[in-house]
Amino acid sequence: QVQLVESGGGLVQSGGSLTLSCTASGFTLDDYAIGWFRQAPGNEREGVSCISSSDGDSYYADSVKGRFTVARDKANNTVYLQMNSLKPEDTATYYCATDSRRYSDCHPTKFDYGMNYWGKGTLVTVSS
Asked: Which of 34, 43, 48, 100 is buried most deeply by CB count within 10 Å?
Protein backbone atom coordinates (compact mmCIF):
# COMPACT_ATOMS: atom_id res chain seq x y z
CA GLN A 1 0.00 0.00 0.00
CA VAL A 2 1.41 3.36 -1.01
CA GLN A 3 1.59 5.89 1.79
CA LEU A 4 3.16 9.33 1.86
CA VAL A 5 3.75 11.19 5.09
CA GLU A 6 4.75 14.83 5.37
CA SER A 7 6.49 16.28 8.40
CA GLY A 8 8.47 19.31 9.46
CA GLY A 9 5.77 21.94 9.49
CA GLY A 10 5.43 24.44 12.28
CA LEU A 11 5.39 28.07 13.25
CA VAL A 12 8.22 30.29 12.02
CA GLN A 13 8.80 34.02 11.83
CA SER A 14 8.92 35.86 8.55
CA GLY A 15 12.36 35.46 7.02
CA GLY A 16 12.93 32.14 8.72
CA SER A 17 13.42 28.66 7.32
CA LEU A 18 11.81 25.26 7.54
CA THR A 19 12.54 21.93 5.96
CA LEU A 20 9.63 19.68 5.10
CA SER A 21 10.07 15.95 4.62
CA CYS A 22 8.06 13.54 2.53
CA THR A 23 8.63 9.91 3.40
CA ALA A 24 7.13 6.84 1.83
CA SER A 25 6.22 3.31 2.65
CA GLY A 26 5.53 0.68 0.07
CA PHE A 27 7.68 2.04 -2.73
CA THR A 28 10.98 3.74 -3.56
CA LEU A 29 10.53 7.47 -3.88
CA ASP A 30 13.48 7.87 -6.20
CA ASP A 31 11.64 5.94 -8.92
CA TYR A 32 8.79 8.45 -9.10
CA ALA A 33 8.16 12.11 -9.67
CA ILE A 34 7.31 13.84 -6.41
CA GLY A 35 5.36 17.06 -6.18
CA TRP A 36 4.91 19.53 -3.35
CA PHE A 37 1.69 21.47 -3.08
CA ARG A 38 0.10 23.84 -0.64
CA GLN A 39 -3.34 25.07 0.19
CA ALA A 40 -4.25 27.99 2.39
CA PRO A 41 -7.75 28.33 3.83
CA GLY A 42 -10.11 29.70 1.19
CA ASN A 43 -7.54 29.28 -1.56
CA GLU A 44 -7.13 26.74 -4.32
CA ARG A 45 -4.37 24.20 -4.11
CA GLU A 46 -1.12 25.50 -5.58
CA GLY A 47 1.74 23.53 -7.03
CA VAL A 48 4.95 24.56 -5.29
CA SER A 49 7.62 22.28 -6.70
CA CYS A 50 8.17 19.01 -8.48
CA ILE A 51 11.19 16.77 -8.89
CA SER A 52 11.30 14.12 -11.59
CA SER A 53 12.35 10.55 -10.90
CA SER A 54 15.98 9.54 -10.50
CA ASP A 55 17.18 13.08 -9.78
CA GLY A 56 15.70 14.41 -12.97
CA ASP A 57 14.68 17.98 -13.51
CA SER A 58 13.05 19.98 -10.75
CA TYR A 59 10.57 22.81 -11.15
CA TYR A 60 9.28 25.61 -8.96
CA ALA A 61 6.35 27.95 -8.87
CA ASP A 62 7.33 31.54 -9.55
CA SER A 63 6.16 32.46 -6.06
CA VAL A 64 8.85 30.30 -4.42
CA LYS A 65 11.63 30.29 -7.02
CA GLY A 66 14.94 31.20 -5.43
CA ARG A 67 13.63 30.56 -1.91
CA PHE A 68 12.60 26.87 -1.94
CA THR A 69 14.70 23.88 -2.93
CA VAL A 70 13.54 20.31 -3.47
CA ALA A 71 15.96 17.44 -3.01
CA ARG A 72 16.04 13.69 -2.60
CA ASP A 73 17.65 11.61 0.14
CA LYS A 74 17.79 8.19 -1.41
CA ALA A 75 19.26 6.49 1.64
CA ASN A 76 16.28 7.54 3.72
CA ASN A 77 13.65 7.28 0.98
CA THR A 78 12.76 10.90 1.60
CA VAL A 79 12.17 14.03 -0.45
CA TYR A 80 12.83 17.35 1.25
CA LEU A 81 11.50 20.81 0.59
CA GLN A 82 13.90 23.37 2.01
CA MET A 83 12.07 26.65 2.50
CA ASN A 84 14.06 29.80 3.13
CA SER A 85 13.11 33.47 3.44
CA LEU A 86 9.61 32.48 4.39
CA LYS A 87 6.83 35.02 4.05
CA PRO A 88 3.40 35.20 5.71
CA GLU A 89 1.85 34.36 2.34
CA ASP A 90 3.63 30.99 2.47
CA THR A 91 1.30 29.99 5.30
CA ALA A 92 -0.59 26.88 4.20
CA THR A 93 -0.91 23.16 4.61
CA TYR A 94 1.79 21.54 2.50
CA TYR A 95 1.29 18.21 0.78
CA CYS A 96 3.52 15.86 -1.14
CA ALA A 97 2.19 13.66 -3.89
CA THR A 98 3.31 11.16 -6.46
CA ASP A 99 1.89 9.27 -9.40
CA SER A 100 1.90 5.55 -10.11
CA ARG A 101 4.07 5.76 -13.22
CA ARG A 102 7.53 4.47 -12.47
CA TYR A 103 10.42 6.59 -13.74
CA SER A 104 8.03 9.43 -14.33
CA ASP A 105 8.90 13.02 -15.07
CA CYS A 106 7.20 16.13 -13.76
CA HIS A 107 4.97 18.18 -15.95
CA PRO A 108 6.96 21.42 -16.09
CA THR A 109 3.99 23.65 -15.31
CA LYS A 110 1.11 21.49 -14.11
CA PHE A 111 2.77 19.80 -11.17
CA ASP A 112 -0.29 17.76 -10.19
CA TYR A 113 -0.50 16.09 -13.60
CA GLY A 114 -0.81 12.36 -12.96
CA MET A 115 -0.45 12.72 -9.19
CA ASN A 116 -2.76 10.19 -7.60
CA TYR A 117 -1.18 9.46 -4.22
CA TRP A 118 -1.27 12.22 -1.64
CA GLY A 119 -0.13 12.63 1.91
CA LYS A 120 -2.28 14.21 4.59
CA GLY A 121 -0.27 17.39 4.81
CA THR A 122 1.74 19.37 7.32
CA LEU A 123 0.85 22.89 8.42
CA VAL A 124 3.29 25.75 7.94
CA THR A 125 2.50 29.04 9.63
CA VAL A 126 4.66 32.11 8.99
CA SER A 127 4.14 34.99 11.37
CA SER A 128 4.84 38.59 10.38
From this structure: 34
